[in-house]
Design a protein that fits this description.
Keywords: Coiled coil. The chain is an all-alpha fold. Helices cover about 75% and strands about 0% of the residues.
Length: about 550
Amino acid sequence: MNKLNMLSARKVKLHGMTSAKWTTKDKITQYKGLINLYLRDSAILKTDTNVTKRRQAKELKQLQKQIETNRGVLDNAVRGDKQQLRNTLAEHREMQLAYQNHQPRKVIDAIHQINFNKRKELDKLEFRMKQKSDKLIDLKLELAVLEDRLKYVNPNDFPIEKQSAIVTGKVQDAILKKEAALAIRQTFIQIIDIMKKDALYFDAILATMKGDAEAQGACMINATKLGQLATEYLDDRRNEYKTLEKAVKRDMLARKQDLMTMQKKITNFATNIKQLLRRDSDLNLGLITIERSDSEIELRESFAKIVETLNALKNSTLVSNFDQIYPCFQTQLDHFERLTAQAVKCEENRDILLKKANHAEVMRDVMNNSMVDTTFQYKSEKKELLAQTDIQKERRRHALEVLKNKSDLLAKVRISLRQLQQMVKIFKMDGIPPEVYPGAGDEDAIVKPEEDEIDGIQIVHYLRRCLTRLMIQVALRQPIGYEEGLKNFENMITERSRIIPLDVKVSDESLLEGMALEISTVPTREEIKRISGEIVDINTKTEEYMASHGKL
């Protein structure tokens, strides 16, 4: 009741109602005014409290939303953005269902493995296709041989037609063999070029892969460190937020209790207002001044200094009350100790690196000073060896070019000789047995194919005999005019290009179906015309000129 007694010495000092001229009505009016002021202040305080409470609740919700957003961003940074992964795999339904909840790195590895398996299957299919193509070529060659056998079984065919068909088949076989050899040679050249490139880039690829592996390892280590630091920072902020939430709740509870206490005081004051009115018979209490002792003054000054110091510390540490100052200092002390330990470790590492650098400089100076005589000799010998190496490389390249040119020239000469040999086989020479062909009743008989002559000298001897006999026979004949020679050449071309009628239908499929070859040795139209003109000129030579050549 002393606290609510408005006529006590303390309250009288506050509102100053000490005039003896005031009546009871004036005092009641004064009390009513004080009560209205007190109610107004209480309503204003309650409104401000509600506004502050709503603002703080709104700020707490914003902080919670920001924490959830930052937590999602951190989770995406550490474990990968699964939403982006699902959007990426949206076009591939099966892959999305299989990998939408996995880590992005695992999904990438799985896709690489799938591509690798498909590449292996593709290589296997290509290899099988190549085997089947080779088998198809062999079967077509065998089919051509069997068709030739059926073609020449008919006894009604003329011998000249049989011979022309045989020559045509052998020429086609030679062309096929030549084309196959060219295709094989081109394939082996491509394989050798690829193997050379692989040999050149193998070491570089290994070094690049090793560097990539080291860089990826360093990246993973740095990412792990950053993740650990981010986790520690998140834990610190989480603890701070929890502490702040507890402090806010504690302050709100304290304010609520204060409001309830004040409400009770106001209720009691409104109830006991009649008892607080002073009657005329009551004594008029004046101001009572109590002297303060030295200890009380010193205590108040010390208390004011302590409060001022605590306020300064609270403002500097950015905390809401005095109880949180010590935990804040404790946290700063822990950070200081951790940073001090890191600084000491960094200084030790710096000293070690400086020692290593000094040792390296000393060793370099020692090596430079101790190898002055041999260094110049080493450099001069190195330059000479490099120059000799370049010369040998140039000689090797020139020798390879010469060898390649010679090989190409020899191959062309051998091919030309072989073509000439096939052309002169129609001549009947003494000492050469005639070719044996299967008869009408020898369908099952197997005729051994003639072996190709690969010795160029033997081919030259054979051509010399055949051409010598040809030139002698031509010399014994009557001279042929230009027009007659041209007519004979046209007849020969017509007979050779005439289509032979067969009872069995010949397959129209090409033996080289699916193969695209460019052969430089196939004569063009201009070359055929030039060769035809030379043949006509030879047939129109005089008898003396031909006889002189026949003696040779």
